[in-house]
# Entry
Amino acid sequence: MNLNSSSTQSNEESPTAKIHTRPWAATLILTGGILLLALGMALSISFGAADIQLGVVWQAVFNFNPDLTPHQIIWEIRLPRILGGAMVGACFAVAGAIMQGMTRNPLADSGLLGLNAGAGFALAICFAFFPGLPYMYIIMYSFLGAGLGVLLVYGFGAASRSGLTPLRLVLAGAAVSAMLSALSEGIALYFRIGQDLAFWTAGGVAGTKWSQLEVMFPWVLAALIVGMIISRSITLLSLGEEIAVGLGQRTGVIKLVGLIVVLILAGTAVSVVGAVGFVGLIIPHLTRKLVGVDYRWIIPCSAVMGSLLLVFSDLAARMINPPYETPIGALVALIGVPFFLYLARKERRTL
Amino acid sequence: MGSSTMVGAERKKKTKGIVVLIVLGLLIITAFIISMNTGFTKLSPLEVLRTLFGSGTPKQELILFEFRLPRIVIAVLIGAGLALSGCILQGVSRNALADPGILGINAGAGLMVMLFVSFFPTTTAAPIFLLPILALIGASFAAFLIYILSYKKGEGILPTRMLLTGIGIAAGISSAMIVLTLRLSPEKYQFVATWLAGSIWGSNWKFVWALLPFILVLVPLVLAKARVLNVLNLGDQTASGLGAPVERERMILLAAAAVLAGACVSVSGGIGFVGLIGPHLARRLVGPKHQFLLPASALVGSLLVLVADTLGRVILQPSEIPAGILVAILGAPYFLYLLSRTK
# Structure
């Protein structure tokens, strides 16, 4: 079928072309990015309704004194929020990178696995039928919803005899997402909860608490490590199924592991902040442009850049119109879209 | 493996394609008739026939000619237009995920509607008629923006670049919409949300007359390009090698897709899913050749929207479910079924 050629396109070049990779650029991004991230976080902590000096930030983090109000503000409100933002950014970016590598489709991101739609569906049900549900439960249900979405996509994608081809995965993902979001749209219209949902989704990282971070962190860390372990195989997968098989990769296993990693990363992120989906789409593109096509570099660099984007977007979200917060998704798009358009303009090949 | 069996297989495919097209046509006619009978006020098939031939009561005439018929015609036109648009985009870009929504066209139209609603104090009768026009302006503006941003001298418009640009623009516009959403009053929000979900409410003959020229001009044009699309599908190099003026043809096709989608979306709101799923369903039915694929996509699209709109009127009476939602709820499972069954 001709649509397979969306993948053959890169097939035509990849066997002969050697893998472009720029380790020095990647190293630069990793070190510089982490420094910048630290700076951004410090700035972000010090900025807010109560202005706090950078020196106090330093003290509060490394020399916490519970009697001082600024220390308490930092420790209880700002720090979790900013760490949450950084974590979520890394999650979306890495999930997007893995998705694009596995499906070899530049339009793919974690939303395509039915994650966002599934979480949104669960959210709509929670808001419509169980109003006033505690925060932690809502998050738990939306993670379950995300899991349901992935399960459906994977089930339908892998159901046929020829197995889970990238094209099939992408199509199943698009169909399941469309169905789930149509259902939640219907629920939202019928129960008139659309705007509440929008508020929730646009809410961003504001309400992040330590308890959430404690739950999220081990999972996210584990998923990131597994992502790094399979990164070499993802590079091979991104060259094409046949090549990967020919080089001795067990593609089925890698895809399953990859999907689980994506589910954990993006599922956690979506259920905490809602769909700031654009991060997962642009950051991997940007990273690929900068460091080449080796996923051993793309994955860690994406994580750093994703964190950077979210931390600075969150900072901007609080600075634009204080004391009100601009939705972080809007700011991510505002910062990301020009970049993305510039990249798209230079784009000549697919992946 | 003589050439005679090849010819035989070819002919068999052709017959199958024609049969599928005829069956789809018949299904649409059936849905058409059923749709005329159903609604808030039931009309029996006999009453419908009598009214059609001019001997119904004034009330029946009003219901049929002023409410139901224009709406049905619009559903058919929109379904065909969006599915064709999607079919072209998928063919030209060789990407299975391409659809009119990805071009930012839906988002452009949606933003205009949202701006309009948030600046007008109430949704009175007169401005509502302005909506499709504004939506068309928004849609064309988004399409135009994508066009100039992805155009490069000497290379023209590469499909991948265009899709990526479209995604970028769509994301930008949607984020602007998020910001606006939070400022709307609940009633206004409900109005916009219904529009965005894609409903064919309030259609009257004026919309039909506004939409019809686009469809009448573009559909034959696109159908005539079936061979070009087949060749483009082989990849740029092969296509140039076969003597197709790749650059120019692609521009024409993309423009046609954008205008079709823009015209349809401005009347219907965001029934974007038809553009994605219609062509895929059609491909499963008649195969990849655009001579059959294009008309089959159009018919599948029409059928989907028509059935969705009819059901949307009936299921939750007296309130209506936007057709866009039902298209996805009906179309997606069938599509998934086909996806897991074939090959």
Residues 11 and 240 of chain A are 7 Å apart (CA to CA). The first helix of chain A runs from residue 5 to 11. The mean pLDDT of chain A is 78. The radius of gyration of chain A is 20 Å.
